[in-house]
Fold:
Amino acid sequence: MEDTIAAISTALGVGAISIIRVSGNEAIEIVNKIFDHDLLNVESHTIHYGHIIENNEIIDEVLVSVMRSPRTFTYEDTVEINTHGGIATTNKVLELLILNGARMAEPGEFTKRAFLNGRIDLVEAEGIMNLIEAKSDVSRKLALKQVNGVVSNNIRNLREKIMKLIANIAVNIDYPEYEDILEVTTKEVEEEIIYIESKLNAILSQSNNTSLVLEGLKTVILGRPNVGKSSILNMLLNEEKAIVTDIAGTTRDIVEGTLNLNGVYLKLLDTAGVHEASDKVEEIGINKSLNLIKEADLILLVLDNNSELTDEDKKLLDLTKDKNRIIIVNKIDLDKKLDLEEENVIYISALNKTGLENLRKKIVEMFNLDSINTDMNMFVNANDIAKIKKCLNIIKKIKENIKNIEIDMIDIDLREINDILGSIIGESYDEEILDTVFKNFCLGK
Structure:
């Protein structure tokens, strides 16, 4: 981290302002080379008006913020240049910074430096990315708890308990002649390990729900042509997103929309009707529809109340039987001809806009969305969830063997749990873990 990095921190495009961030030991010196006022001796956390200059030519009128180490996000000298928004101007200023000694930052490198310099831990770093990508107020509040260290502190508290147990076991090992110490230590281990297990189980349970909040539900609306899929999409979104006609096969490609349901983001995908294709284009659309079944978190399978069950209907019922599925029987305003014996069935009329509230309630019930609240812990990272599960497996082994093995063997298991929890917050890590955490960050963050 000896070099100085630079990147555009705002979205690239036309706008009122763009911000270019520079961080590193030479940040102030590099910006000073292209700014028409002396920045070398200015006080920290001050803003300066002036111009970016190249060969005595004014490139842009800017505001430059100077923040000296260690009171910065990265704990390094940091300069932020506020330019007029626009691709040409912003890129030109970035180009001058690189020509004068800065290096283009990698995605997430500013946050990575904040972690490596001890400013934040890994959970807080992931919280920053979750905050940037938050799609609802609930996800924003949960991500903010990560950023503020609430989640990390819960892990640290568990590690403190484990270290206390390890210390008590050490006393037993050092003074084996005192049998009462052994008895007290074993009893305390049993009690504390049950407590730690309950906390980890709570984190695991909440993680499954909070992953829905952050990642959302990929929801595929599926069915044969003309059963009302596009009408249902439009009804859910309360807008005319998809074209609706009485001509079979109107939808030939995926039509997308988003819905916020109890703070959970639903990505709705209206698909081409599944049937025997009449041309190549329609065949491609149908294949896309079928492939989405594998990726979907939720299938809304639409059937026609005014038609008997067809071979295409039966095929789709079979293909989706092992998925999270809600069957929607549409067109209840028409005569009933459909004979169906299935669970999770909602009856609606997209034409008359009836039954929508029942569908919403069914989705909430299926995914326990009512239980989601901002008091939960968050470990939506699949790797972190796997680590929590590994800790629980070790605890299970301790509980099964605590009466039959030497206390120093339990010490080994407790140290492993402690190390695993430490790796979640980054108190122990390797480069591969860091690459996984920061690779999905945007440039300039």
In short: Residues 241-253 have pLDDT under 50 and may be disordered. The CA atoms of residues 236 and 388 lie 37 Å apart.
